[in-house]
Amino acid sequence: MIAQHQTPASGTLDDDAIGAFGERLRGQLLRPEDAGYDPARQVWNAMIDRRPALIARCAGASDVLAAVAFAREHGLPLAVRGGGHGVAGKAVCDDGLMIDLSPMKGIRVDPVARTARAEPGVLWEEFDQEAHAFGLATVGGVVGTTGIAGLTLGGGQGWLTGKHGLTLDNLLAADVVTADGQLLRASATEHADLFWALRGAGANFGIVTSFEYQLHPVGTVLGGMVVHPLDRAVDALRFYRGFAVAQPDELTTYAVLLTMPDGTPIVALITCYAGPLDAGERALAPLRGFGTPLADTIAPIPYTTMQALIGGGYPHGRQNYWKSGLTGTISDDLIAAAVEHYGRVPSPFTAIAFADCHGAYARVGRGDTAYAHRDLQWDVNILGNWADPADNDRNIRWVRACHDALEPHLSHGVYVNDLGDEGGQRVRDAYGANHARLVALKNRYDPTNLFRLNQNIEPTV
């Protein structure tokens, strides 16, 4: 008698079908009873605990093609994992097929052309190390364990955003497996409509097996933070608002309400100046001269050190629950609400971040990429983060209450990479004015919505 493998979506899968699929792969195919299954299904956000029927740990594009075909033929829910760092946990599903790209780690830097090709399992700390060896970098995530794939396909804020835009603005081309089983190269001259959609809504349109990025000369930056106590946070954030409006492209700054390891709540003004150091000293002099800071750590540092500056605060295995919104201005009311709520934050690991996007970011047209919110300078993100699952309810309530207080002072726009499971309207808010065009392209490239375990653009055919 043939053993049956039950999944709600597919009815039954017999062992022969699973065995034949496994034989087609260069990588591993894992079932729940296999060694390695539990580590493979774990993602960064420990709140997510899902059990796929199968995990295909892909070794290359041929494995991705085989996995997409298997999911399509058997009607399986399909989740795609790159770095597994997304707060919503959509990299893993219950009862379906998880396509795990994390073994795909290839990176090739061309220092003459100043480009790099990288596979979707690469993390930013790995990419940065390879590019930095040649004095080069592209815009990458500010937490090193974030995967390049998810960050790029949703946007990609980073310490170089003022000078070089979002990560997706530095994407030159991508190899992508589509829902109908093709491997296409998308660029400005090849499948340009797909390339447009990949840059901001990419998880909806296929699985990228290779990214090609533009690199820029970046070696030593002027980076670090100036720290003020929470009782000075209102004044510090008002100062920051005015300072950031006039900052040059070379300077990207974040303001973050957080708690020091000794339990002291603070506001940290975090800086990265990617240009001549003497010009950076002049640009940062007003920020460093404001008030009487508790600490000033700003100094010339390697770009890779800058990239690691805040990553230690977001390790794997903690509970994470976020709420966020974009805004074109940091109003007095927004500042007051953020500081007031942070004064009673339940977890010392939770932060409220004002992430700055200006300069090159704002000079890209709203319709030039699928990311639509170029007129909104700040991403205000309530980063709920705690260790003990027994504290879930208390921390989630605080994050929601904080967001309720901040939301009236934010726009309707939201950065898609910040979203949890927040409903269809929030997804439409993330894609903004480009949503209708994205629906039309979804109808063309994925009319059955095979790629739906994401911040989903639903087809209408």
What does this structure look like?
- This protein is α+β, with helices and mostly antiparallel strands.
- It has three domains: 4-100, Uridine Diphospho-n-acetylenolpyruvylglucosamine Reductase, domain 2 (2-Layer Sandwich); 107-217 and 432-437, 2-Layer Sandwich (Uridine Diphospho-n-acetylenolpyruvylglucosamine Reductase, domain 3); 220-418, Vanillyl-alcohol Oxidase, Chain A, domain 3 (3-Layer(aba) Sandwich).
- It has 14 helices and 21 strands.
- The chain has helices spanning 15-24, 37-41, 61-74, 124-132, 148-154, 161-164, 192-201, 233-245, 277-289, 303-307, 332-342, 392-406, 424-431, 435-445; strands spanning 4-7, 11-14, 28-30, 54-57, 78-81, 97-100, 107-110, 115-118, 136-137, 171-177, 183-187, 207-214, 216-217, 220-229, 251-259, 265-273, 295-296, 299-302, 319-327, 351-356, 378-386.
- Strands 14, 15, 16, 17, 18, 19, 20 and 21 form an eight-stranded antiparallel β-sheet that branches. Strands 7-8-12-10-11 form a five-stranded antiparallel β-sheet. Strands 3-4-6-5 form a four-stranded mixed β-sheet.
- β15 (251-259) and β16 form a beta hairpin.
- α8 (233-245) packs across α11 and α11 packs antiparallel against α12.
- The longest helix is centred in the C-terminal third of the chain and has 15 residues, at 392-406.
- The protein starts with a strand and ends in a 16-residue tail after the last helix.
